[in-house]
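hey can u check if this looks right to u? its 367 residues, i copy pasted from the old doc so theres a chance i mangled smth
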Amino acid sequence: MKAAMHTALALSLTAFLFSASLFATQSAEAAVADHIRGDAPSEYTVVKGDTLWDISGRFLTQPWLWPEVWEVNPQIENPHLIYPGDRIRLEYVDGQPRLSLERSSGGAPYRLSPSDSVGRVGVDGRVQPRIRATPLASAIPAISLDAIEGFLVHNRVVSPVTLDQAPYVLEGDDERLVLGASDRLFVRGILPESASYNFVRRGPLYIDPETDEVLGQEATYIGTGTTLAQDGDIATMVVVESREEIQITDRVLATEERRLASTFFPSGPEEDVRGQIISVFSGVTQVGQYDVVVLNRGAREGLVVGNVLAIYRRGALARDRIAGDTIRLPSERAGMMMVFRTFEKLSYGLVLQTRLPLSVGDEIRSP
């Protein structure tokens, strides 16, 4: 029954703590003690809304070094699960820093209720009821999902040809041009009845700034609908949900079967990666913490969900008055980001840390 108590999120946190060491490339060359923050607290009490990445950053200048200093307490069942109210202490053992966990009084609370499954048979021949334990508090996640939830499920990148050939909205009932939830509309294209579809709008066309290769086009999610009928190449649909008003010429794509991940497994790229930030979803060119950015590297370059990358602010152009030419100054390390969705030729990333002002065109590299 104890195994059933551990949720998928709990497993993800365990994976974070151990797999993060795979990409702590600098830890082999420098003592972990060198990365303890000068203002690190001796003790920190976890509160609701914390993430593992944020807590690590309170103690370490490089949060992914957490596994190097984490002291497993065998007296605590699964010490890699961290709950609000728990206390994390920074101590030194033989001159080396250690982070230890102390459960809050009462530990992680559970609600007990009868289980639907059949219980075991007791020695008296009677069936003993089973108890289902449901955690009242969830373990904290590795990172916050608030900034990226919509991108995990809805937004996608496709080839421009895919959008060109996709069915499109003709008009709504009574010749309406703008539609919303519960409205009926007509779409030109073949759409099987009762199937679920996304209404999307043509977004930015992404072009590699280094090679001029077309990397894909954003299919911006507008809403969801289902097909009611098909007459020739005209489908009648009803809008089930809409994020914003659906307009004439908006395209219709089959709904992707995607599950929202509860957390991620941070890791380093298996191969050396160098690329650029080519767009930011905040609608400006400046990049800040927790902004969602687009990278000109994707699955074909070996990137996978959870890869952590360093961000370098691109060096400025300088005029060499003696040589008479213009050169670019060295780039400077300025932040960290994590890939949370990949496509063939590009990826979405979440900026986790910023030390200097960042902008579109800045570089990304293996950490």
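Residues 1-30 have pLDDT under 50 and may be disordered.
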